[in-house]
Give the backbone structure.
Amino acid sequence: MNFVRDTFKNSTPSVPHFEINAFIGNEWVGHYQRNGEWIENVFVREDMRRRGICKKMMMHAISQKKQLRLFVRNNNLEAQRCYRSVGFVPRTGIDDMTEMVYGQIVGQ
Ligand SMILES: CC(C)(COP(=O)(O)OP(=O)(O)OC[C@H]1O[C@@H](n2cnc3c(N)ncnc32)[C@H](O)[C@@H]1OP(=O)(O)O)[C@@H](O)C(=O)NCCC(=O)NCCS
């Protein structure tokens, strides 16, 4: 899998905000965003799901940053399985969302 990383134009230099697109060959298969330590907008193309693409995208994120966090809906078990499989653990819950973290979150 290949990854193409772009930086958002309004990104703060000290907390870069990235859009990462994932490709198999020339085929776009999914994307995620990383805003500092926050992972956002994880999405895998519907016809390409359950093949480990989310897992590979999160491994890519970990290769770039050792502390990560995200929010996931409590009922989104597929996404939670993906995050757990690379080492994210649940930390707090807010309403119907769970915060999951990877690595040691500084100051927490
Ligand atoms: C959630 C989402 C990103 C998961 O993407 P995915 O590429 O299908 O996920 P993965 O294949 O990497 O892994 C998820 C689980 O799918 C299953 N799976 C993975 N490969 C599989 C295979 N070859 N055969 C059967 N099941 C498989 C496993 O249960 C896996 O968990 P595991 O690694 O613990 O076994 C995708 O469903 C999606 O885009 N959903 C809509 C948007 C969304 O909900 N985003 C998350 C917001 S927090």
